[in-house]
Each structure stands twice: as structure tokens, then as C-alpha cells.
Design goal:
Helices cover about 20% and strands about 25% of the residues. It is of the alpha+beta class. The strands form 14 sheets. A 5-stranded antiparallel sheet has the order 31-36-33-34-32, with helices on one face. It has a 5-stranded antiparallel sheet with strand order 37-38-39-41-40, with helices on both faces. Strands 1-10-11-12 form a 4-stranded antiparallel sheet, with no helix packed on it. The longest helix has about 40 residues. The radius of gyration is 32 Å and the shape is globular. The termini are far apart. Bound molecules: 2-acetamido-2-deoxy-beta-D-glucopyranose (NAG) (3 copies). The site of one 2-acetamido-2-deoxy-beta-D-glucopyranose (NAG) has 4 residues, from loops. One 2-acetamido-2-deoxy-beta-D-glucopyranose binds next to loops.
Amino acid sequence: MCVCIKFIQCKMANILPMILFVILNLILFFFQLSTSIDTITQFQSLNDGNTLVSNDGTFELGFFTPGSSTNRYVGIWYKNIPKRRIVWVANRDDPIKDNNSNSTMLIMSKEGNLELLTNNNQTLVWSTNITTQSLSTTSSHVAQLLDNGNFVIKANNNTDQQSNNFLWQGFDFPCDTLLAGMKHGWDLKTGLNRQLTSWKNWDDPSSGDLTWGIVLHSNPEIVLKKGSVEIHRSGPWNGVGFSGAPMEIITSSVIATTPVINSNEVYFTYSLVNKSMVSITYLNQTLSLHERVIWSPEDNTWSDIQSVPKNDCDVYNRCGPYGNCIHNPSPICQCLDGFEPKSPQNWYASNWTQGCVRKGEETWNCGVNDRFRTFSGLKLPDTTHTWVDANMTLENCKNKCLEDCSCMAYSNLNVSDGSGCSIWFGDLIDLRQILTFQQYLYIRMDASTVDSSGDVSSGKKNHTLAIAVTIPLVIILLLGIIVFYVYMRKRKQRDNAEINTLTEERDEDQQDFELPFFNISTMISATNHFSDYNKLGEGGFGPVYKGTLAMDGREIAVKRLSGSSKQGSKEFKNEVILCAKLQHRNLVKVLGCCIQGEERMLIYEYMPNKSLDAFLFDPAQKKLLDWFKRFNIVCGIARGLIYLHQDSRLRIIHRDLKPSNILLDNDMNPKISDFGLAKICGDDQVEGNTNRVVGTHGYMAPEYAIDGLFSTKSDVFSFGVLLLEIVSGHKNKGLTFQNNNYNLVGHAWRLWKEGNSKELIDDCLKDSYIPSEALRCIQVGLLCLQLHPNDRPNMTYVLAMLTNESVLAQPKEPGFIIQRVSNEGESTTKPFSMNEVTISVIDAR
Ligand SMILES: *[C@@H]1O[C@H](CO)[C@@H](O)[C@H](O)[C@H]1NC(C)=O
Ligand SMILES: *[C@@H]1O[C@H](CO)[C@@H](O)[C@H](O)[C@H]1NC(C)=O
Ligand SMILES: *[C@@H]1O[C@H](CO)[C@@H](O)[C@H](O)[C@H]1NC(C)=O
């Protein structure tokens, strides 16, 4: 191990103390190296061959040669990950060309700069170049590799890892990789733009032409560029996320934090929900995209969890002005309502560059009488020419837009509370369909082309629209009846034969997915003739039994569905296949099904830990759920629900979310069960009005319990109840508080109003809970419980609120559905039809 010391200006009189100092340092240095060190102090050096390791052992800094190159660089990588990824390079544009590795070293100069030298002739290859004024002459400096991968220069006595008082930091000069905690954006005071720049190629870390950074529009967004050509933009921040961001950002446990936008700085950072996970975003210079990868230790590989642009519609301005890019159908570009192709000839030849224009554009005289057409489900347009005001009301926003003929659209700045104003000047560019957020865009139109009774958004019926909708509907209905008739006839002929051959049969839609079909005899022997001893519980659609498969000893859970045989076996099978395809770590896995005659069964993976209620409401067992586990359970359920609600293939509303439907695995990770049952049993519409209410008192949203109206927001309500139950350890129903007829929700609301929410927290969490987190859970719970479905946040936003530090909205009064606590049995799980219900139910039609 070679240690080199740089002597500078060494006078004869100083030589003796200097030598002593050097020897002392050498001893110290060797001592430190034998463990591992994360700092270079003044007069020390790091030679090629040695490395620094961050205090917690995550990151390592040292010399490396990329790919087939012969140059050497100083860089940082994850120490314990065998498939090395360089996350930062010090001298990317100043390579060490000297092949003699013994001669190069990184030193901390006397002045406090990091310098990369080739020793033979003391050539300075690279330096941090901090000006001497900013370096204090009185205290000494060290360079340290921090636990988050930041390599910094700081005063020796500064022990704070997060401090911003660094004299220099690698995070200010990102390369192609964004690490958690890194600021992505601008320091406006110094003009420093922290943007990512790709490597030139896999062998050459020098700056390539792909960049990804924040553009300083009045409504900033993150833009990916190749050279000067814009490839993709994130869409402006809408208070919850980037308006063009695909869903995965949040479902993959990676959270973009609210951007900081003020007169000093404009940046965003991201954080990982699970801090021990290794996940980064980097620029892929070969494919011209930014890619998020995650290290999975089991497979010993980096897997891609998101790359952008992913499809045609992610590509900037794919459809031209006012063209809406829709990923699925063909052609992918469609003019917005009220617009027509600028050049029909080009447009229908799939050349969309010229986009669309307003119908009747030639005769339109812009003025204050113009109207706005409301659009939802669109990525907000390019913000190059925008103006924003965070405090302006939507009405004033509209008027402001009307005053200026170049204003073409306006919208809220913040979708979560509907506040603020953003207006767009000039043609609207880079629109696409995106359903992640409920965001509205109001586009200016000639009054004569928009319904005379007012804005489309006002909700009044448009006569021509009604006709335009009714006629095709009638036609579709007639066609539907014919198809149905033909289908029923065919089915009748086939059905009997089919049931007997199901076990062998594989049809077209199964080709890419094999769902095992089990024989009834297998199920009978696995569950010991469905004995009571094997019965695990009784859920919404029938009893559940534990079983053991004779062939491989595997443990399974068998749900014997009651009253579902109305549905044909084919439809049933298709629904089960769809549900079995829903795979998420927070959902119970569907292993197969069994169909025989009238019998319908679902086979799930077996969860040894039983369900959440067995822990939460048991005085002894609940102690096993400390705060960390409970919070993990809350977030896990939220993630599972996001997946159910947002997955692109299906949109599943659970309709019976409650603790007994949350199963726990060996590590106490939550898994939602019974999802999709309403669908499988054939009485689900995507959302809407049902005459069969499935659910459990105490968890049902008022609009569902009373009017039979269900939507993702009724699941959000149930989640709110669940959240309060998890924090308090009490059932919503079945307990009275303060000798009043309050249920848990009522009790929580009263404590909240009094500012005593802390009293709600389970006594047995006293030692383990984090007050800010627990109180946040209660507030989010109350937000989910608000009476009006539209006031309730969606699950994506719920998860973001739970895991971010952002300020939360004030909840409005919750919808209490059953305030009176009755004794009609603990947690009724029996499904009931509206006709049988005895509580006051207003029949909805
Ligand atoms: C340093 O040494 C290298 C190789 O010995 C040589 O090519 C280079 O010109 C020298 N640089 C200076 C500044 O002397
Ligand atoms: C966090 O991630 C690590 C590594 O991937 C994993 O072992 C651990 O179980 C995760 N923890 C939670 C709470 O998800
Ligand atoms: C599409 O149309 C524009 C305008 O007419 C033209 O400049 C461009 O070359 C066309 N692109 C292709 C691929 O034909």
C-alpha cells in the first residue's frame, strides 16, 4: 500500500516537526486503512488501487476504467452490488490517460481543494477549483464520502451529514445518475443547473448529448433533450405529481417530493419509501431515455422498472398542436373535441406534425364572449408560454385568460385542493391522454361552437350532444341484443359439454397465461370434505377453507363461492383469469379455480398469519404490531389498492375492504384478499349503481350503503376506517366512546375538532410510535372519510400524503353512516340484497 505525501513549501526550520507530523499521519493513515475510511484529510492522498467507503458501507469511491477504454477515472459505485454501476464520475471530461496507475492520486491540497494528479510530472488532471476566498484559512478541510453517495468537501469539525454548509459537493455536479436525496434543478443565486447528462457511450463517461433537467418556465417541468431537440417532458407539477407522469412512479415505492420553487431555488428530489432498497434513475445514452432501475438481490440483477419515453405518446409533440395522443387505438392521434385536422390530407396519411385547428377558426373573432370547453384526462400542455398565480381563483383565472386573445387555456395549479391559476398562451402543444390524475384543462373556443347554455363543465345537458350520444347508443343496444341472442343459442349447445372438459381445455385467451383448474375431488380431499375444522372464516361470497394439496403438500386457501353459479362457467373462468393476472406484493395470489356443475371455487395462496383483525383487536396479539409494522401495513394496503384502482387492464373496486380481508404474511406484510369477487361473481359494473350491496357495516361509504353507488372513492372511505382502526386498535363498530353513541369515526372526529387526536392512538403503541406519522395517519384517515366522494383523495394521493412531509388539507366532517352502535352481531360479513335489508335504506334507481 503506497501512501504519498505532498510536501509544499517546506522550509528548513520546519523540517523536523514536519517529519514527525508525517510519521504520525502515516501511522494514523495505515491504521484507518486497515478498517475502512470515508475521508481524505489535508496532506493525505488516495492512490489508484485504494478506495474510500462510506461510513455505512453503501458507497465506494475509487479509480476505475470503463468498458474497453484505457482511460482511468475517479468514480463512485455501490460497494456491495456485484454488477457495478458507476453513479458519479469526478473527472468525466478530464480522463487520466497515463497508464501507470501507480502514479496517479487524488489529494486534498493545502488550500482545501481536491486535486487529481499524475505524479511523474505533477500534472493536474482535475480539481474541484474552489476559489480560495470561500475556503477559510483557519480551519482545516476534509473530503468525505457520505452515506447517500455524496462526495463533499467540508470543514473538519462539521459532522453533519445533511448539512448544506459544504464547500463543495459532488451532488452539485451530477453525471448520468440521480440518487435519492440529490437535488435535480437550479440554484438561481449561483446559476448552477444540476441536470443529468448522459455518458457519451458505455466506454466513455464524458458528457454525451442527452440531458434531463428542469426548465425554468413559470410553471417548471423536467425535460429530456437530445442535443437541442426535446424528447419528452414531465408536464408541470400539479400539486400531487408531474401532470404527465405515469403511475409507476408511486407504485414502485419511489416518491417524487413536492418541488421546491422559490426565488433562490427550483428543484425536486425523490426519496425511496424503503430506504434499504437500491434504486436509481439514469440516462441511457443508447436508447435516449431515462430509466429507473432497481437492484434485486434475489435475482442478482438490475431490473428496469420504468423507462421514459416508453411509448409513442411519451414523445414530445407527437400529435402536433391540439392533437391528443392516445396510446391504445390506431391511429394514435386524435383532434380534441371541437377541433379538426389542419391538413386532412397529411393527417389521414398519419403525418400529424401540423396538428389540429378549431372548427370554424377562420370566422372566429376572439373576444371576451368566448367560452371554454372542459377537458379532463389530458397531460397539461407545454409550459413554455405560461403565466401562473398560486393564489388566484379559477373564476379570476378564466377572466384573466379572456382578456388576452393569445391566451388559449387555463387550469388549476393544484389538483389536490383546486387552488391557483395557470394560463397558456399560443397553441397547446404536446397533449396526450393520461388518466393518472383528475386534472381539468379549460380550452378557449368560439362561443358559437360551445353549447349555448354555458361551459361544458357546468354540467348542463347539451342537446346536440344528447342526440349524438343517443343514436349510436340505440344502435349499439340493438346490435348488442342480436349478438347476445346468437351467443346464448350457441352457448346452450356448448355449455354441457364444456363443463366436463374444462379441466383439460385451454382456450385462446389463456395462451399466455395458464391458470390451473382443480378437480372437485382434489378440493374435497384437500379440505377434508370441507370440514368445519378446516374452515378459516366466512367472507363476503362464501366460506374459506384451509387445504393441503395431496400431490405436493402445498397449503392453500379455498373459497367456496355461494350464489355465483348464475354466471356461465366461461364468464366465470374469464373473470378469474383476469383476477389471477393481477399480481402485486400486496394482493393475495390467486392460484386457480375449480368449476364443477353449480360449484365455483377459488384457490388462493395460504397465509399462515391469518388476517389483520386477529391481531389488531386482540389485547395480547396487538402488541406484536408495533408502530413500524402498522405503518408498513397501512402503506402496503394503500399500494395494493392503487394497483387495483389504477391498473390499466382492469379497474377493480374492492367493495368490502376491512381488517378481516387483509391477510398478513410471515413478515407482517399486508395482502389484500377477496378483491375482484364482485366482478368474478358477475354483479359488478366498472362503477356505478348496483342493487346488490356487498360490504360490511362500519366500513361502507354512505353513498354505497344508502344508494348503492360505488366507486373507487367508496373504497377510499373504507380505507379511512381501516386507517383509524389500525392507529387506534379499536373497531369502528362495537365500541362506544365516552358513553356516547359515537363509533370510532365519530370519536376520532370529535377528538380532532378538540385538537386531542393523540388520545386516539393505541395505548400499546406508546413506546414505538412516531407522533408526526401517527397524527398524519389520523388526518389522512379523516380526509378519506369525508362525506362527499369528490372531497376524498384518490389512493395515489393518499399514499403520497402518508409518506411525504407535505402540509395536509383540513378534513371536512366525515360521513357517519351508522352512528348508532347496535348489537346486530360483530362485523357482519354476510352479503345482503337491498330487499332484505332492514336498516333504513333508500332504494336507488
Ligand atoms: C507529463 O508527462 C507525460 C508523460 O510522461 C507527458 O506526455 C506530458 O507532456 C507531461 N506534461 C507536462 C505538463 O510536462
Ligand atoms: C426493504 O427492502 C429490503 C431490500 O430490498 C428488503 O429486504 C426489506 O424486506 C424491505 N422492507 C420493507 C419494509 O419492505
Ligand atoms: C409531414 O408534413 C409536413 C408538412 O407538410 C412536412 O414538412 C413533413 O415532411 C411531413 N413528414 C413526413 C414524414 O412526410
